């Protein structure tokens, strides 16, 4: 039996001391999923990207993209940056812009979670919300039209396109990938990642192809996303941050198959059910896209691997961000997403 002292809150390694919040981005922990993946043959880990300071893995890419733009466009305090975002990149950029003294304009759509929108306001971000769906049923193309209009209105502003950005990909090749391989002593059998702009997945995939080529890369997307080659076509999507209504250049279709071994499409209900299950088994609060990763990791990928193998899921953000959306009874019911376990609180079993 471990004594209670074994779980005292103390750093596993020396604490980092930063000159600004930007110095403490990354180096996120991995947690073994012994309970959620109790029946899995391989050993499974989750990388908790919610431990980044603005709450998601987007911090890594935001720093790199803004620093690149500083060099390319000679940004200086007072300069204006424009980004189109589902939410997390907006928060990450707002964090970087706060430190550097830049003004930020975020073009968002109605799928943004109210908590994220409120935090963007807290950062002083200018929020431009578009409501019109594009020809694919998503919002991305309408967001881009609004970006073009803003660029005409603010000719000195710099638009950072996270969908076509070697810096977005490179941030994860330089940090997320190496962190996983190093933390697990160089033995990683498979990594499961989300599909969005392609920054995190292709960045990690590129790192592993070079430094651990046998590691299999699994990408998880929501049905209805048009991000990847061979996608099943447009449909309504509900997992904020996952999927796109365009094919981001970051996936580089001609070389995509060299880096990615498996692609799996999921339904929102499966993803949210997995997020509920991991909260109740491991105590981990994660967003729906992390749930999608864990659904694929445990229910599809794990059976392909043997005892002694190690599989890792990269979980983009924290579940608290979605208390009014993906984990809200009314929100789910309006969209016809069935997650009965979310509302089984065992209240009837407790005597008054
Ligand atoms: C919650 C969440 N999951 C997944 C993704 C996809 O990540 P990427 O854009 O690196 O492909 C994002 C991106 O915005 C996100 O916010």
Helix content: 25-40%
Compute the number of strand runs. 10
Q: H/E series, N to C?
A: EEHEHEHEHEHHEHEHEHHEH
What is the CATH topology of the largest domain?
A: Rossmann fold
Total helical segments = 11
Q: Taking strands numbered 1, 2, ... along the chain, how are they ordered across the largest sheet?
A: 1-2-10-7-8-9
Radius of gyration (CA) equals: 20 Å
Detail the poorly predicted runs: none
Given helix and strand content, the structural type is: alpha/beta
Number of domains: 2
Report the top-level CATH class of the largest domain: Alpha Beta
Give the N-to-C terminal Cα separation.
Answer: 34 Å
Taken from the alpha-carbon principal axes, the silhouette is: globular
Q: Note the main sheet.
A: 6 strands, mixed
SSE map:
Blueprint: E1 30-32, E2 43-48, H1 58-73, E3 80-84, H2 88-100, E4 103-108, H3 114-122, E5 126-129, H4 140-153, E6 158-159, H5 166-174, H6 176-183, E7 190-194, H7 199-211, E8 216-222, H8 256-259, E9 262-266, H9 268-282, H10 288-301, E10 310-315, H11 329-334
Parallel strand pairs: 2-10, 3-4, 3-6, 4-5, 7-8, 7-10, 8-9
Antiparallel strand pairs: 1-2
Bound molecules: pyridoxal-5'-phosphate.
């Amino acid at each position: 039996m471990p004594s209670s002292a074994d779980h005292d809150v103390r750093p596993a390694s020396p604490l980092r001391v930063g000159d600004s919040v930007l110095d403490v981005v990354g180096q996120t922990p991995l947690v073994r999923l012994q309970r959620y993946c109790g029946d899995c043959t391989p050993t499974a880990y989750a990388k908790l990207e919610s431990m980044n300071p603005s709450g998601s893995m987007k911090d890594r890419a935001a720093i790199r993209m803004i620093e690149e733009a500083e060099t390319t466009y000679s940004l200086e305090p007072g300069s204006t940056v424009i980004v189109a975002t589902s939410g997390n990149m907006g928060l990450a950029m707002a964090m970087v812009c706060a430190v550097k003294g830049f003004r930020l304009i975020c073009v968002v759509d109605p799928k943004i979670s109210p908590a994220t929108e409120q935090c963007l306001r807290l950062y002083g971000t200018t929020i431009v919300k578009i409501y019109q769906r594009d020809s694919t049923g998503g919002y991305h193309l309408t967001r881009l039209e609004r970006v073009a209009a803003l660029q005409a209105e603010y000719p000195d502003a710099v638009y950072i396109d996270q969908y076509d950005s070697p810096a977005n990909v490179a941030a994860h090749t330089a940090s997320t990938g190496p962190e996983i391989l190093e933390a697990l002593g160089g033995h990683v059998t498979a990594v499961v990642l989300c599909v969005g702009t392609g920054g995190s997945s292709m960045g990690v995939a590129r790192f592993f192809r070079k430094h651990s080529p046998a590691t299999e890369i699994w990408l998880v997307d929501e049905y209805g996303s048009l991000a990847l080659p061979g996608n099943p076509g447009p449909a309504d999507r509900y997992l904020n941050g996952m999927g796109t209504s365009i094919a981001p250049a970051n996936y580089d279709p001609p070389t995509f198959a060299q880096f990615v071994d498996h692609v799996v499409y999921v339904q929102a209900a499966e993803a949210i059910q997995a997020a509920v299950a991991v909260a109740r088994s491991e105590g981990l609060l994660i967003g729906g896209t992390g749930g999608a990763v864990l659904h694929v990791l445990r229910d599809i990928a794990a059976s392909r691997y043997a005892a002694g193998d190690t599989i890792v899921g990269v979980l983009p953000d924290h579940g608290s961000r979605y208390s009014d959306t993906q984990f809200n009874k009314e929100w789910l019911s309006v969209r016809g997403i069935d997650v009965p376990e979310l509302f089984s609180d065992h209240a009837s079993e407790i005597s008054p």
